[in-house]
Amino acid sequence: MIRHIVLTKFKPDTTEDKIEGIYAGLSALAEKLPGAQNFTGGRSESPEQIERGYMHGFVIDFDNWAALKNYADNPEHQALGGQLVANATGGIDGILVLDLDV
Question: In Å, how far from its chain's centre is CA 36?
Answer without folding.
Answer: 13
